[in-house]
Amino acid sequence: MKLKPNIAVSESGFVFNPATGESFTLNPIGAEIIAKIHEGLDYSEISEWVKKEYTTDEATFERDFNDFVGQLKINGLFEKSKNEEKA
Amino acid sequence: MSISDKKRYERPMIKKMEAGVPNKFGLRSEYTPMQEIDGVSIKQLLKDYGTPVFVLSETTIRSTFQKAKKAFTTRYPKVQFAWSYKTNYLDAVCKVFHQEGSWAEVVSGFEYDKAINNGVSGKKIIFNGPDKTENDLVKAINNESLIHIDHLDELYLLIEIADKLNVRPKVAIRVNMDTGVYPMWDRFGFNYENGQAWDAINKIMRSGKMELMGLHTHIGTFMLSPNAYAIAASKLADLAISLEQKYNHKVKYIDMGGGFASKNTLKGAYLPGTDTNPSFDDFAESITTALLNANFKSDEMPLLILETGRALIDEAGYLLGTVIANKRASTGKRLTIMDIGVNILFTAFWYDHKITPAQPFTHYTEETAIYGPLCMNIDVIRENINLPLLNKGDNMVVHYVGAYNMTQWMQFITLRPKVVLIDTNGTPHVIRENETNETITSLEKTPQHLSSFNL
Ligand SMILES: Cc1ncc(COP(=O)(O)O)c(C=O)c1O
Description:
Chain A has 87 residues and is of the alpha+beta class.
């Protein structure tokens, strides 16, 4: 789970992909999660953190997280490493 | 950290920014949450009466009626509304209109009996529609109701009954006509342009067996053109004046039917109906100007009857429901499933209903489709709507649902919900119970040979 290296993430929730010129907005929790992914945290670490900070449960977050990561992939923001493809 | 210190969870969301493409939905206030109806908490209503639930505001019914009445009575000396039962015939709703002074307009024996049971005097019931049985007609004649003749077969049957019972039915004819609006509603009544209307009038007048009380038209429904009403009113006025010249007979009323658009937004319309649809004043101005300009003597203006339906009740009705699930279509599009389907929200076939959340959200929104819970492709409540990031269990308010839903709803797969009326003091009352399995199965009968089986 890794963002493409040249992707620019701002703290205020904007993402810029210089390769395509596309910009994206994120809601605050989306921005925080992207930052965590950027730092190299994995799903279980992120999930622990979200459950501590927000009123949600594992099942809800897992589903929403997978959906979110799916959107990051569709929008071409994720690196397709060999590992990733196998996983 | 205790629960109360935690932040309200919202789904993580990413959205591509499309520079220079203004969002078609961006101007709408659809995601402003609505948390109360007439001061009553929506969460509490859902807790007390279940989800989904229809809620009607008596205050809004009365104020809408007063607005419509004022639009006409300030422009024309004699005005009478008749509540179109088919629009919403829950007894409590009809009685609000009757308390406001509305007569009853019915289109079937079932509706006729409902009006009588509600205590409406027979003389104040207008009986429209193509399907009145002989029994219905006899009852209506004996009660001196106003029978609006739809076709020649009915006219002949009335003459027969009048002969047999030696009574004089009070009648009007329904006239259809070209008002410049298409498709033309020429299935009902007698046509103006091709002379059918005159033919019917001649038959009634020559028979001498009936009292021709009025002329009626209903030019269509969800009409957006006040001018069409001006044309229709002039044509009926012409008929009335020629009738007087020919037979020296004055009709007592001109009935312009219903059809005014409500505040809803028709599917495919670019701007919301609240901004674009004509007001009661616009329709009143067109109709009354046409009648006042006709050649009636000033002290012999006919009574103007209006059978306005949807425009009087749509706004007072809300449908509250709950998000069941969020999904993504194979195309990546967000889909939201609610417990409100087209089985109870029949008008979703015609309108892009305004839908707002019932709890506060951040300003982040997402384009989504809203589907109902039925296992059918046609069960679409909104194909495209910009809404906050809804979670399972969140509540939603569908607006302007007062007309036709509580009469055209279907019992399909599941049971119909409660209907609640909030009175003018803010007290909710159940005015129709939810159905139970018993409601449905009590009408069924199983033949003896099907009573048992071995699986
Ligand atoms: C004869 C007649 N009157 C009144 C109405 C009420 O119409 P609306 O709800 O469009 O005002 C209808 C509805 O179709 C009707 O058929």
